[in-house]
Amino acid sequence: MIxxxxxxxxxxxxxxxxxxxxxxxxxFRPDECVGEWRHDDCPLTLGLPRMDAAQGRAAxxxxxxxxxxNAGGKMGDALxxxxxxxxxxxxxxxxxxxxxxxxxxxxADAARQAxxxxxxxxxxxxxxxxxNGKKRAGNRLLTVGTDCSVGKMYSTxxxxxxxxxxxxxxDFRATGQTGILIAGSGVPVDAVVADFISGAIETITxxxxxxxxxxxxxxxxxxxxxxxxxxxxxxxxxxxxAIVMCHDPAxxxxxxxxxxxxxxxxxxxxxxLSVARLTSPDVQAVGIALNTVKLPEDEARRLCxxxxxxxxxxxxxxxxxxxxxxIDWMQTCFDTSxxxxxxxx
Length: 345
Known about the structure:
Blueprint: E1 6-11, H1 20-28, E2 33-38, H2 53-58, E3 63-66, H3 77-89, E4 92-95, H4 105-114, E5 118-120, E6 139-145, H5 152-165, E7 170-173, H6 177-183, H7 197-204, E8 213-216, H8 228-238, E9 242-247, H9 265-276, E10 284-290, H10 297-311, E11 315-316, H11 318-321, H12 324-333
């Protein structure tokens, strides 16, 4: 486990989507976050006290979380300097970037000398198996998306928390750096060699004999030319009984690809069900999760209702408005007499 409390790094970021890791940790582990470190040219905020490394350490932070993302996951000179400043105060450093902390000589040397730890969250476990597609027991739900960064992790965590609050056994299975930092475990599937992606998901969602659910955080999109491979491996490895389609209605084009349009929700649901049926022939779509953060509440609620009517599925913003409509639909879809959604005692 990465030692808390945390100081969340925003640095020089000006991309609201690019700080999703820091934002996610602040949203789902607020009691562990003492502040945010952002420079004067950063227009973004998480609403936390602003502080630098020394101030964060004085406030009790044990770990600096480099919760930013950029194309290629590289560490720039400014980020390296800030990581070194945090290490000099005695803080550990955690990162979900593709470039590993341990592979930056000055960071590795400074950590060694200071006696602090480096946590490279995007390190996949060793000896992952190749997926075998064998039918395994248990209930699994996978969130999927029309694009990258549309709220799959938020939706999965919201579903899990609502299920638990309603007495339903449910476990969150993290597949990205932010989810792993929140849950404390998981597998970063976008760092797994392609042949082992489905096997990695089989590993973190083994057969279960109870009536509970594994809720698996989705990644990428089948319609994103850069990341469709990860999405495919997840669909096959998850063997989902249910999928929830996540969508950002304010998205004008595929993230990072202005020459690619965002697919329609119905088209995307059909494609994901088709791919999932290779290993889970009876998979069902059970809801649509909209990321309405950019919309006023009345417009967001109206859009959810219109989307539900258009697709014949419950639609909500699970983080903003709650996940109950989707869970209610699941209880209708799945025979509760055979207990897949039976409420725990």
